[in-house]
Amino acid sequence: MLRNLIILTFGGLALARPGLEKRASEIPAIPTKPPRGSEPGAAPTRVSDTVTRTTTHGPYSGTATTTGQEVGPTTLLTKNDGPPAAPTGNYYNKNGDMEAPFQLPFVPGGGKGVNGSHLPRYMVESDFDYASVSLGLHQEYIELDLFNHGVARFSEQDFLDAGLTAEDRTFLQFMATQEADHATLLTNMLGESAPKQCVYDYPFTTVREYIDFNVKLTRWGESGTWGFLSHLDSREVSTLLVQAEAVEARQQQIFRQWLGLPPMPVAFVPGIPQSWHWTLLAPYISYCPENNTRIPWQNFPQLNIRNLPNPNRVSPNDTKTDEVVGPRVADPSQSNLTDTESCVQNSTLGYDCSPAVAHNRSEPLTFPGRKLFLSWDEPGKAVGPNNSYITTTTAGEPKFVAWLSQINLTYTPLEITGQNEGWTWQPPNEVYQNNPAVNETVFLAVTDTDLYLTPFNLTLINPHVKALGILIAG
Ligand SMILES: *[C@@H]1O[C@H](CO)[C@@H](O)[C@H](O)[C@H]1NC(C)=O
Ligand SMILES: *[C@@H]1O[C@H](CO)[C@@H](O)[C@H](O)[C@H]1NC(C)=O
Ligand SMILES: *[C@@H]1O[C@H](CO)[C@@H](O)[C@H](O)[C@H]1NC(C)=O
Ligand SMILES: *[C@@H]1O[C@H](CO)[C@@H](O)[C@H](O)[C@H]1NC(C)=O
Ligand SMILES: *[C@@H]1O[C@H](CO)[C@@H](O)[C@H](O)[C@H]1NC(C)=O
Ligand SMILES: *[C@@H]1O[C@H](CO)[C@@H](O)[C@H](O)[C@H]1NC(C)=O
Ligand SMILES: *[C@@H]1O[C@H](CO)[C@@H](O)[C@H](O)[C@H]1NC(C)=O
Ligand SMILES: *[C@@H]1O[C@H](CO)[C@@H](O)[C@H](O)[C@H]1NC(C)=O
Ligand SMILES: *[C@@H]1O[C@H](CO)[C@@H](O)[C@H](O)[C@H]1NC(C)=O
Ligand SMILES: *[C@@H]1O[C@H](CO)[C@@H](O)[C@H](O)[C@H]1NC(C)=O
Question: Which of 49, 193, 195, 405 could hold 442 in an S-S bridge, CB 3.0 to 4.6 Å?
């Protein structure tokens, strides 16, 4: 300890005297730069250059030239509630012995694409793949725009006022370049008909609201990808998407940290069906370029959580009804609270919600047993690019609320209190003992049944979904 102190003191003295600064050593190196243009090994260009200006945003006021989802020539089944066939797999290894011939040295039998018999092709292999990656590309493009827009819209001082530094703002700018790379990758997997970047309509007016919106938007982007990855026909596409999604997941966690929330109070992140992803994303896409390809996934009616806990509050219990900045499904909580109500300037441990690597919250956002007051829209509303998609549902009478969090789907009964409104309560279930299932982001659906589903057959829920929403629990 004493030795460290002495070294520090000498360092400080040396710096204070011009001409005596400690210079770093020169080490062996070759002057080099990346190959460009027609040079061998040159990298392809990105679909989007680095944006350094403000771009157009706002609602769409025109009339759509076409409406509704892209559909196939026919639809084979309206729903499939099981019972499912017996499992197709039966491999079971009771002693750890390798029984099948090795394919290559140190390569046990099994697996796909590991013995050189398969030439990798990094392109979508089916309509399912195409539509999934198109949706993913819309997500990459809105993130690209949203991160750039955060830098353009909010000044260094705005960031400082929200407890973030100029370095954090520069880091946000870098996240936008990650999105340009992801958009380029996904465009290449689709080919010439890949969707192009659209114009977006955002709900926030302050840095806190911006971050709150980012927490939700990046979570549904991440969960949307986890939901379809293992169902893709192309394992090559899946491989690269995982490698992109690993970075998106880090972005999501960083936005939670910037909002002063526990960074990852869960052991698993849920995967959602594509139609859930599209339902949450579409309201924020204002309009798309002429001829942009259309999306086949469903848009469900919106589920409103009337008492969504406000993460800016010292006491989330005190959140008022509809304390959000606008009417759309993932609009952020209001940040214009009084100094005593707001946790941003509160420096007391357990209450401080300024940006940090990790915070404890003495008063949680939500807790098991907490009542949740809900209302939901009728179908038939125009949403999404050019207001050209229409919300639909095939569900019967609403009876349950499905809570999708971590790797579990839990149903609670829905108590109806009026036309399109009711309440339920947060379930106490655990994933494994001592890991409460409901924490962090929860996807909530009002359903007509409590069909038993697990992560790999979750999409069978869609014909039963009356309305869909998103909740930050914790
Ligand atoms: C979903 O998968 C689980 C097995 O993990 C099975 O028990 C359940 O019946 C399946 N649900 C439907 C509707 O097929
Ligand atoms: C090589 O792997 C493929 C699956 O990717 C499999 O069908 C084939 O039987 C394997 N060949 C050998 C020699 O193991
Ligand atoms: C959406 O609006 C844009 C801008 O007005 C227009 O160029 C495009 O063709 C429209 N697309 C549809 C599907 O109507
Ligand atoms: C859209 O498609 C039409 C018909 O193929 C074509 O004439 C038009 O140039 C396309 N517009 C754009 C912006 O690509
Ligand atoms: C929030 O409400 C719950 C349920 O009524 C209660 O148990 C808890 O003590 C409240 N929190 C605070 C800080 O008062
Ligand atoms: C806070 O902002 C909301 C809009 O986001 C507005 O409706 C409300 O009146 C504002 N409250 C205060 C106290 O300024
Ligand atoms: C933070 O909020 C708590 C709970 O209201 C309060 O007891 C504490 O005094 C506040 N701390 C500061 C520094 O305002
Ligand atoms: C944070 O919360 C945990 C669990 O409630 C508690 O054990 C821990 O002591 C808290 N940490 C601090 C620094 O207060
Ligand atoms: C949560 O999901 C896991 C994995 O599917 C399962 O093993 C566990 O039983 C589920 N927990 C509950 C409470 O349903
Ligand atoms: C959610 O996680 C946070 C952070 O670990 C913890 O303080 C809180 O009690 C958890 N909520 C529930 C319902 O378990």
Answer: 405
